[in-house]
Each structure stands twice: as C-alpha cells, then as structure tokens.
Write a structure and sequence with these properties.
Largest sheet: none
Oligomer: single chain
CATH superfamily: Magnesium transport protein CorA, transmembrane region
Distance between the termini: 44 Å
Shape: rod-shaped
CATH topology: Methane Monooxygenase Hydroxylase, Chain G, domain 1
CATH architecture: Up-down Bundle
Length: about 130
C-alpha cells in the first residue's frame, strides 16, 4: 500500500508534465516522459497484482486456519456428546435415595457399567460410521 501511495502521485506528476503546456519541458524530453509514464503504469499494475496476490494468500491462510479449527471443534463435540449421557446416568445413580430398586440388586453396579459402556461404544461406532471421527 505504501508503494502504491508513492507511485500514484509520481505518475500524476509525469502525466501533467507530459500533457501540460509548460515552457520548461522541451519536445525531445517528452519522449523520455512518455517512457517514464509507461514505466509508472507498469509499476502500478505490478503493485496491484502483488496486492491481489497477498490478499488471496491471506484469505487462503485464514481459510486453512478456519478448517483446522472446525476439525478440532468437531472432535470436541463428538467427545462431549459421548460423555453427556454418561454424566446423566452417573448423576441419577449418584443421588442418595433409599427407594432406588437398582441399588439393592446384586448385579446393579455391573449392569450400570454395562449400560454406560454400551452407550459409549455405540456412539463411537455411530460416529465412525458417519466419518466424524
């Protein structure tokens, strides 16, 4: 942007010297001024193309960072969705009630673990089949 700010006024000055009615500029000098004007236009075009290229590279970089962030967020969401039902079950069975029939059975602890493992494995298989993991 600074190069553009420097070259743009130079181009305007050369253009005014080239097309103006100045007594200080001789006709044989106008040939050199035309060449200088052409070079300044080429430099402006180069600056614009480099600016567009830099903008495109910045957009591509930000897009790749966004894609990586989306991948991380997807994995974190899958992990959270696996642990939410397990947290619910542990919360229910962690309450101190006397009238919970599952607490008095001999295999209640192992059945609870089996249900929690089955839920976690089922969700893992579902997420792998959907290619989310």
């Amino acid at each position: 942007m600074q190069l553009r700010r420097f070259v743009w006024p130079e181009r305007d000055v050369v253009n005014s010297l080239l097309h103006g009615d100045s007594h200080f500029v001789r006709p044989e000098t106008k040939v050199y001024l035309r060449d200088l004007y052409d070079h300044s236009v080429q430099v402006m075009d180069l600056i614009e193309s480099y600016r567009d290229l830099a903008t495109s590279l910045m957009d591509m970089y930000l897009s790749s960072v966004g894609l990586r962030t989306n991948e991380i967020m997807r994995v974190l969401t899958v992990i959270s969705s696996i642990f939410i039902p397990l947290t619910f079950l542990v919360g229910v069975y962690g309450m101190n009630f006397d009238n919970m029939p599952e607490l008095r059975t001999r295999w209640g602890y192992f059945i609870c673990w089996g249900v929690m493992v089955a839920i976690a494995v089922g969700q893992l298989l579902y997420f792998r089949r959907r290619k989310w993991l």
